[in-house]
Amino acid sequence: MSRFSSEERSAPFTLEYRVFLKNEKGQYISPFHDIPMYADKDVFHMVVEVPRWSNAKMEIATKDPLNPIKQDVKKGKLRYVANLFPYKGYIWNYGAIPQTWEDPGHSDKHTGCCGDNDPIDVCEIGSKVCARGEIIRVKVLGILAMIDEGETDWKVIAINVDDPDAANYNDINDVKRLKPGYLEATVDWFRRYKVPDGKPENEFAFNAEFKDKDFAINIIKSTHDYWKALVTKKTDGKGISCMNTTVSESPFRCDPDAARAIVDALPPPCESACTLPCTVVSYSHHSVQ
C-alpha cells in the first residue's frame, strides 16, 4: 500500500485543475521534492502523471508551489497528444522519478544538449493502467536518449514491482524478448508524437538504441545530483518552485501549515466545487503483449 495519496482540485480538463500529493499523515507535499527517489534498494518511486491510453498531457507543475500535477497549456489551450496511428494516447503509464532534474545549464556528454528543465521521465510498461497522481514503485530496465527541440529528454523504461510479471524483467533485453516490438513502438511514438502539431520529428542519441539498466541508473543518479544542487540553492532554478516540507538542508523548506495554506487558497475539491455532476472515469486493466 502506498504511503502517499492524492487530492484533486477543480474539474479535470480545465485550466484550474490540479492534483496535490499528501503523505501518510495527510499533509500536503511536493511530488517533485518530498517523495524520495528510492523506494527501496534498487527500486525507485514513480509519480504517475498520465495513465496509459489517455491523451491529456498532464505533468508536474515545476513552477507552481508544491508542484501539483496539472494539464500542460500551450498558447492558452489545454494540450492533448494525438492518437498517432496505430496508437491510442500514451502507450505506457507515463510520469517522472521524484528528486531528479535535468539541468538546462548542463550539457550532457552523451547527447551534446542541455537538460529539459524537468524531472526525468519514466515509461512504465506493466499490465496495470495506473491512476493520475498514483505513486508506484518501479524497477528500472533501461533508457532512451531523446533530443526534443535541442534539449536532452531522457526516457527511462521501467516496470511496476507489483506487476505480476515483474520478476521476469531485469534489464532492457528482457523487454525485447518478452514484448517484441514494444521498444520499437516506443521510439516511433516519441519520434512522431509532435508531428500532428506541426512540429518536426524528434531525434535521438545512440542511433535511437536503448541503453541498459546500469547505464540508466547512472543517468538517474546524475539527475538526482542536479536536483540536490537545485533544492539547496547551489543552482539557480530560474522560476522553478523548490518549496518542500522534508529536505532538511534546503532553504526552501516550509512547515505543513504553510503547505496547507497554498492548497486552501485554491478552489475546493471537485465534488464540492462543481455545479454539474462530475464524470468518474474508470480504467480497465489491459495487458500490452
From TrEMBL:
One of its GO terms (biological process) is phosphate-containing compound metabolic process. Homodimer. The lineage of its organism: Eukaryota, Metazoa, Chordata, Craniata, Vertebrata. Belongs to the PPase family. One of its GO terms (molecular function) is inorganic diphosphate phosphatase activity. The gene is Ppa1. Its EC number is 3.6.1.1. One of its GO terms (cellular component) is cytoplasm. This is inorganic diphosphatase.
